[in-house]
Amino acid sequence: MLQRLQRLETVIDVSGLGLWDWDVRTGAITWNARNRTLFGVGHDGPLTLNDTVELVHPDDRDRLSAAYVEASNRPEGGDYTL
Known about the structure:
Blueprint lengths: L1 H14 L4 E3 L6 E3 L1 H7 L9 H6 L6 H12 L10
Antiparallel strand pairs: 1-2
């Protein structure tokens, strides 16, 4: 598992994409450094769902919130689609 995660991080770093994780059960949101850079988040502290919604263009916030609600209704897993 660790080797797979390291490969994923390498691909993410090389591609220039941000990586994030949301624990549906606890609400904890974790962003890698690249995602923080892409969105202009300068601190390394934890992010909240409200923080992430505020960083999205206002026209897309309702869709983002709905996707989070949909995902939170399936804490056993599933796809997050926007």
